[in-house]
Structures are given as C-alpha cells and as structure tokens.
Amino acid sequence: MKGIVLAGGTGTRLHPITRVVSKQLLPVYDKPMIYYPISVLMLAGVRDILIITTPQDRGQFVGLLGDGAQWGISLSYAVQPSPDGLAQAFLIGAEHIAGDSAALVLGDNIFFSHGLGGQLAAATTAIETDGGCTLFGYRVSDPERYGVAVLGHDGTLLDIEEKPAQPPSNIAITGLYFYDDQVTGFAESLQPSPRGELEITDLNRCYLKNGQARLVDLGRGAAWLDTGTQDSLLDAGQFVQVLQRRQGITIACLEEIAMLHDFITPERALELGEAMGKSGYGEYVRQAAAEYLAGNGRSA
C-alpha cells in the first residue's frame, strides 16, 4: 500500500499565522503537525509516502522531513497548485500509486487510541484480501459539520450524507481513507461538484455503489482532532500535552514507531535522539531507544 498525506490548502482560517508558513508545519505541542498523519501511515505499515503540498511550501517540507530515510521510509513530494478537492490527491499522486492500493490521510488530522495500530493493520489486510475501501468513523456531538455515515441495521455502511441538516447518525467520516487499486480510475471519472471540487464523498460513493465500502468505528476510547482553527489547534496541543505528561509517552514519535516496526534499528533511533540535543522530544527518543536495547539484552 502506498501512502499520501494531503498537506495543501491555504489555511485561511488560521490567518495571519499561515500567511508565511504552512498550517501543517505549525507545532502541535512538541512536534510539527505533519508528524501526526505520517505516524498514522507508519503505524499501518506504509513506508512509501507522497506529501502533497503547495508550490510555495514544498521546500519547507523537504527541509523538515527530507527523503524519510532517517525513519526507514521513502518520502516524495508533489504540489497541488490550488485546493480543488480531496479526491484530486489521487490524480496528483497517480504516478506514485502506480496501480497499487493507497491510503490517504489529511495533513491536519490527528488520530490517537491505544488500539489504533491494530485497527490500521486489520484495515490494511482487508484491502489486500477483499479490495474495496475502508473508511474510519468517529462519534461526534455536531455531525451536521461533517460527512455522516448512513448505516443499516447490521452496521453496514449504506451511504454518506455531506453536512446534513438532520444527520442520520452521529458518526462522522474522518480524514483517513484506505482504497484498493481502483482508486485512481474512480478519481479520474469524477466530475467537479457545484463548488468546483473533486469531492472525496463522490469518490467514496463509487465504492458504495459497488457494495465495496466498509466503515471502521474508531470507538469511544479514540481521539480524532481536526486542527483547522485557532481553537481546535490549541485544543489539540493541550490534549497531546496532558496525555503525554500523564502517561509518559510521546504521540506520533516517528523514531519510536520506526524502531518498533523494524524500519530502523534501536541503535539508529538512539543516534537520531542524540542529534536532537536537549529537546524534550529528543530526550524521549533517547530514552525509548535505550529501554528497547536494555529489554533485548543489549546495552545502550
């Protein structure tokens, strides 16, 4: 499976902050926002990832992330000249996908749960064995703001209603999507909506029409955060701060995820942590690598 992080857009809701820097490069507590969606793809076992951003921001993303080799993954870059819809990512990324299955995650979405890795692995397996698409749902108090799942009595996904005045459920479709190798062809068949965009809901309906769409409910113990406004950005930073301080973990630590998935060795993770100097993030990486080495009978 190939991965795509859609990190384009103008971030107008965050102006004036985003006049000079991409929204996805802003900090969410102790790390850049872009780390969070990349971590989700890595947890799913995806190692070949395309970052789609704006022409003016591309250089900053390359400067921050490089080619991904430090985490044992491959990062490449493409530009979205104008924000013409989420489904446009599959046209821009067609060469990257190259006929494989694909996972798309929005660059301003944050996901967290203790069972997330298992859910992502199961969803990846479902795509590989059964094809179709897997969408991820999350229960919200204001479903009228989102694309909302229409479910059958047995929990089967029947349809998606976009920002309905009377929501059929409280399960919002999140910014994480897994598709089989039909996705590029379906994206090419889409027509722009009345607002001039290639809508992700229209792409999902291609799979729904064929009876090939599944919904995974992330569950009550999960967190899904959208960081598109000042308030939601602050809420996300506070959520990460509280959770990390209380549990002694670091969410979306790319070095730790790479180490635990055998993308890199613990020795390499330790080197990366040491290169970060006295930052709290770097200290956590060093500690995680040292504990891993000690647990495997080796000395840090």
Automatic annotation (TrEMBL):
Record key words, sorted: Magnesium, Metal-binding, Nucleotidyltransferase, Transferase
Magnesium listed as a keyword: yes
Matching InterPro entries: G1P_thy_trans_s, NTP_transferase_dom, Nucleotide-diphossugar_trans
Keyword Cytoplasm (UniProt): no
Catalytic activity: dTTP + alpha-D-glucose 1-phosphate + H(+) = dTDP-alpha-D-glucose + diphosphate
Record-linked Pfam families: NTP_transferase (PF00483)
Swiss-Prot/TrEMBL cofactor(s): Mg(2+)
Signal peptide start-end: none
Its EC number(s): 2.7.7.24
EC class of the enzyme, as a word: transferase
Domain Nucleotidyl transferase: 2-240
Molecular functions (GO terms): glucose-1-phosphate thymidylyltransferase activity
Family affiliation: Belongs to the glucose-1-phosphate thymidylyltransferase family.
Function: Catalyzes the formation of dTDP-glucose, from dTTP and glucose 1-phosphate, as well as its pyrophosphorolysis.
Protein name: Glucose-1-phosphate thymidylyltransferase
Organism of origin: Jatrophihabitans cynanchi
